[in-house]
Fold:
Amino acid sequence: MNCIKMLSSIIAVCLLLTGCGVKHDTPLMKQDNGTELSGNSGTGMEDGHSDKDDMKETDEENKENDEVRNAESEQSGKETGENEKSDKSRSSSEKNGEDSKSEQKQSETEQNNEANQNKAKGKEAQKNTDYTNKQEQIDGELILKGFTICVDAGHGIADYSKMEAVAPNSQETKPAFAAGTRGINQTEEQLNLKVAKKLEQKLKELGADVYMTRTEAKTEMSNIDRAEFANSINADLMIRIHADGSSNKNTRGISMLVPTNDYINNASLVEKSERAGKIILEEVIARTGAVNRGIIKRSDLTGFNWSKVPVILIEMGFMSNPEEDRLLETDEYQNKIVQGIVNGMVKYFIN
Ligand SMILES: [Zn+2]
Structure:
């Protein structure tokens, strides 16, 4: 009797457990970007399938909204030639004298010593990853000597009421400056500048001529001015540093914006920009492990349409996504982004 009771208890427990398994599995879903979401985070998620579809739709909508936001935030402003000049001379004066050359040499020596020590310790196996090898190769020499790169820290504190033409032959105007998005502890303007300065330093260490569109929070350089600044130095590449925001806090990942030939009558510029964008995005994703939102072609960005040199815009992640926002606050993650950009540029210019 007891045996029968026990058996039926076991069967009952088994049935219960099987039921639990289904219940727990059902509400789990994957977002478009591959992030697993728990059904508990949504509302009324009884049917995983339709929720998934809803989520997809929401994501599409958000993507559209994001693009609109991007369009809104990609605005431009105006700046006098004087300011351009002062920015240029600031960049030039920062452009290395003997001091930074000797610093470079010193850091090269340190890197070489470190590499030798590691070899001596028999760490080849550990170092035998693609990235470590590539990094040694990249860090070891002035591999970007002779290349001129314009680094544009997106946004800046400015007069947000000004308007300017979206393209040289367009009647359409957009605000000349936009405030950008923000995270919990920093604004996009602040983040962009931090990353831009880190990138400037890394690129200079590799011998590149680097010009910054701004080096402080305040700016009078509109997006037209920034494009024309890159044109005036005949940059081999202009990279615009930005971060994203979305009304959906789950949206995350890194994307690369590149120009189209809608307004730009220069097939080579468009082709080079796309090639640089793809390579650099790939390297940044490999470094950060972030969700890859891909290449986005944009014809509506003033800063692209006035450009006569290859130009790309990286959206480094969503400051509206709590996890990504926290990452974007850290030097470690910012350095990963910078290293990815640098590796991508080396690949684009050298290979
Ligand atoms: Zn932005």
Summary: The chain has a mean pLDDT of 73. The chain has one domain: 68-350. The domain at 68-350 is CATH 3.40.630.40 (Aminopeptidase).
